[in-house]
Amino acid sequence: MDVTKHVEAKVRAHQFIQTQGQHRGWGQKRIEAIEGHLGVFAGTSYAEAYVRAHPPVVETLPIDNHRFENEKLSSSQQMRRNHQLTGAFIPEADGSSAGTQ
Fold it and tell me: What's CA 46's distance to the chain center, in Å?
């Protein structure tokens, strides 16, 4: 599930979790690492994964349109697309973002 537009609120919320010994930067690092990683597979910058309690039973293997279109890309095109997704929020030394060049 795409959570990109909620990332800032999630980071602020994580700053208030003190029961597990997290420090101030813990929420930012966690979201960048875990939800950023999941976002690559979801085709977005940040995502959350969920496991269905009762998965649907189907007679054929389902494939969503995003994954179907992604499989048509060459390996280099997929890597370029992933770089744009993961680099969109990583500032370069000059202040620009890698994903917007």
Answer: 3
Cα(78)–Cα(84) distance, rounded to whole angstroms?
10
Q: Give per-residue pLDDT as tens, 9-23.
A: 988 887 777 666 677
For residue 5, which of 67, 51, 66, 47 has the smallest C-alpha distance? 47
Q: Which residues of 64-80 are buried (b: 16+ CB within 10 A; e: fewer)?
A: eeeeeeeeeeeeeeeee
Q: What DSSP designation does 81 have?
A: H
Alpha-helix runs per DSSP H in 1-101:
7-14, 26-30, 36-42, 65-71, 75-87
Domain boundaries in the chain? 4-100
pTM for this one?
Answer: 0.51
Nearest in space to 45 (alpha carbons), one of 4, 100, 11: 4
